[in-house]
Fold this sequence. Notes:
Layout: E1 4-8, H1 15-19, E2 31-33, E3 38-45, E4 48-58, E5 61-66, H2 72-86, H3 92-101, H4 119-128, H5 134-147, H6 157-161, H7 165-170, H8 178-189, H9 195-199, H10 205-213, H11 220-229, H12 240-248, H13 256-267, H14 274-290, H15 298-304
Antiparallel strand pairs: 1-5, 2-3, 3-4, 4-5
Helix pairs in contact: 4-8, 4-11, 5-15, 10-11, 12-13
This protein binds a DNA duplex (15 and 15 nucleotides) through residues 129-133, 135-136, 139-140, 169, 173-178, 180, 216-222, 239-240, 303, 306-308.
Amino acid sequence: xxxRLTISTPNDYDLVRDVCSYGYFVLAPNHWDTKKHxxxxxxxxxxxxxxxxxxxxxxxxxxxxxxxxxxxxxxxxARAQITRMLRLDEDESHSKxxxxxxxxxxxxxxxxxxxxxxxxxxxxxxxxSCNVAxxxxxxxxxxxxxxLGQKGCFPTAARVSRTRVGTLRGRCRVGxxxxxxxxxxxxxxxxxxxxxxxxxRSTDDDxxxxxxxxxxxxxxxxxxxxxxxxxxxxRLAIDTExxxxxxxxLGLKGTDRQIIKKLEKHxxxxxxxxxxxxxxxxxxxxEDYQGPSETWDREETATAFTAANF
DNA sequence: GGTAGACCTGGACGC
DNA sequence: GCGTCCAGGTCTACC
Length: 310
């Protein structure tokens, strides 16, 4: 029997709703159990990998059960990673502020977007989502966890920085992203990505955006997406899905360039929460087609979430 | 500052 | 079952 941690959450936290809120929850090594409503996730800790099964035990309370005993230090590390992943740092007042700006989500309570236990994983997952259909993103993450991750964990920056580009391409099927992924891992491993500066509220959004765009493999879309993952929601991450959403859900007309301008204008009133307003609109559209997100299974989304199905 | 073409994978489609 | 086409965001070279 392993360690069990009780984790306090904001009162409005809902594990089912708040985990199943962004596509990364179905990407390896995350496993969402669609029946038991638990999140299983292997974490890198000081003495090696440990897998957590996270369940909601009541209002404001989660339980994380591990497959081995954790030291005191490891318990603190696990808490920190789970807090980041589940966005437990965004308290009720943050949700209320968002719902004040965009009341459409007040009833459902949607306010948080699932992310990864580390910024490195978020950045690599973003790169694997660029210029590919969703099934390839699913596969790249699955293969990286399988071939490079210790006991099924997502690989660390140190491990990826030592990996040959041919291995990433051949085994993990990342294609031309191979060199960019290794270069990003080296930057993280050498400590050249200053996470404290990126998350500091006094750092300007424009400066963060400019810095992110200077990283290998990160363009305007990826930088906008990583800003969301850093908790900065003042920008959109515009890709072909955004344009499709503008046409299909908002009825916008014109060339892609014109539609993008109209989208920027459409989301302008949501100010600091633009990304959330956009994302929950898009998410609702996906749920209308595929059913509630808590019923989505990784393998099913890999086949169901193709452009042809939208 | 704007744009064309290359990059790689996997799904869709035609035969 | 095989071959071909296409979608997807970033990067480089060029105007």
